[in-house]
């Protein structure tokens, strides 16, 4: 008997318009450091509702550039969520700072502002909330905390391009918001990222940081003024995005409203199918925001099941459903344990981790695949009810 086709948890949507946009750049004069990169940065800023946007090589580089622009360094602390990809915390380590983990709200799975405030010390320099799954954090409370303690607020919006908070783009509330354009995200550039801000000082610093700390703008030179001259003014990295990635991103951004609409339609279908099923908790959404729905996460009611999450995971995987886990708490990883972090730091996050399961969600998913995911999840969970 043949196994059913495998349905991944996420997959990019690439059409002929995207391909042509990349081909046009490949046939042009610039493969990198050309006009498409600036255009893409500006386009992301427009979606995010900010004045400035810096296109960069990936979402991790975006976080690194943001903490560097904020002046975070050795001896500082940065508060973030443990339920995130490791880059949200690693960016603090890159600049010599210490990540501090605040627990999550058990409803939204986003960082708990009250626990953020409890974790603030005299060494705290920045807060990095993560708009997990695409649902905006409580930005009013987080911004008030940041302002009260004179901290920089850097939102990790890797999941949240196109999300809104209180009717405005979610990217417009923090001092800086970072994005990722990995193929599993709402907008794909292969690898790619961006940082948006309203702060011109942060903007200029990030432009320098992504390109070796070098400027070619004569108005900014401190020394030479010859036509061939360029000047390194700070220590930066080669974090540039290519023009063909930017061209793909520009084409993808045109489809973002359609991508978001399809994701929301599929979420509605999932919610209808699962909301009354014993053994399952569907995602709760705050009325303050509208998610961009990067991920759809089921939380298992383990007390109603006769097996653990890992058994459910394996049975779904064996039936061709590409479930995943988002995420292992950052401080569970071996590297962080070697640094001295230990279990028990964030009880709500740890409890969620034991019961969470990501199921497939992406615009290119066909109707038959959606129905198969629903039917298979229901069958597997039902077979293990107590």
Q: What would you say this structure looks like, in words?
A:
With 386 residues, this protein is of the alpha/beta class. It folds into 2 domains: 16-254, Type I PLP-dependent aspartate aminotransferase-like (Major domain) (Aspartate Aminotransferase, domain 2), CATH 3.40.640.10; 256-382, Aspartate Aminotransferase, domain 1. The chain has 13 helices and 15 strands. The strands form 4 sheets. It has a 7-stranded mixed sheet, sandwiched between helices. Strands 7-6-13 form a 3-stranded antiparallel sheet, with no helix packed on it. Strands 12-14-15 form a 3-stranded antiparallel sheet. Helix 1 (16-26) packs antiparallel against helix 8, helix 2 packs parallel to helix 8 (243-254) and helix 3 packs across helix 7 (200-209). It is globular. The two termini are 30 Å apart. The mean pLDDT is 97.
Output the keywords.
single chain, 386 residues, alpha/beta, Aspartate Aminotransferase, domain 2, Aspartate Aminotransferase, domain 1, 2 domains, 7-stranded mixed sheet, 13 helices, globular
């Amino acid at each position: 008997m043949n196994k059913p086709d495998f349905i991944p948890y996420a997959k990019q949507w690439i059409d002929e318009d995207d391909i042509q946009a990349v081909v046009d750049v490949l046939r042009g004069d610039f493969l990198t450091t050309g006009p498409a990169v600036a255009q893409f940065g500006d386009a992301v800023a427009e979606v995010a509702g900010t004045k400035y946007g810096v296109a960069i090589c990936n979402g991790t580089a975006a976080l690194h550039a943001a903490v560097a622009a904020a002046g975070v360094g050795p001896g500082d602390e940065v508060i973030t969520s443990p339920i995130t990809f490791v880059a949200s915390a690693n960016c603090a380590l890159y600049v010599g700072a210490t990540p501090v983990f605040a627990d999550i709200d058990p409803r939204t799975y986003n960082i708990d502002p009250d626990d953020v405030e409890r974790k603030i010390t005299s060494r705290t320099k920045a807060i990095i909330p993560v708009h997990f799954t695409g649902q905006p954090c409580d930005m009013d409370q987080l911004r008030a905390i940041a302002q009260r303690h004179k901290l920089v607020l850097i939102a990790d919006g890797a999941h949240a391009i196109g999300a809104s908070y209180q009717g405005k783009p979610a990217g417009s509330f923090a001092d800086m918001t970072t994005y990722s354009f990995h193929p599993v995200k709402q907008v794909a550039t292969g690898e790619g990222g961006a940082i948006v801000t309203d702060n011109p000082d942060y903007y200029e610093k990030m432009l320098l940081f992504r390109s070796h700390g070098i400027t070619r703008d004569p108005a900014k030179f401190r020394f030479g003024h010859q036509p061939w001259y360029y000047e390194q003014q700070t220590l930066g990295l080669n974090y540039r995005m290519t023009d063909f990635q930017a061209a793909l991103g520009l084409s993808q951004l045109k489809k973002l409203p359609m991508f978001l609409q399809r994701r929301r339609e599929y979420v509605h279908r999932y919610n209808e199918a699962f909301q009354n099923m014993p053994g399952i908790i569907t995602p709760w959404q705050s009325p303050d925001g509208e998610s961009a729905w990067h991920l759809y996460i089921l939380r298992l009611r383990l007390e109603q099941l006769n097996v653990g999450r890992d058994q459910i995971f394996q049975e779904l995987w064996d039936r061709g459903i590409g479930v995943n886990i988002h995420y292992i708490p950052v401080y569970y990883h071996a590297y962080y344990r070697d640094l001295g972090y230990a279990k028990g730091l964030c009880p709500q996050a740890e409890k969620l981790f034991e019961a969470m399961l990501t199921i497939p969600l992406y615009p290119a998913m066909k109707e038959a695949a959606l129905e198969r995911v629903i039917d298979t999840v229901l069958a597997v969970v039902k077979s293990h009810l107590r």
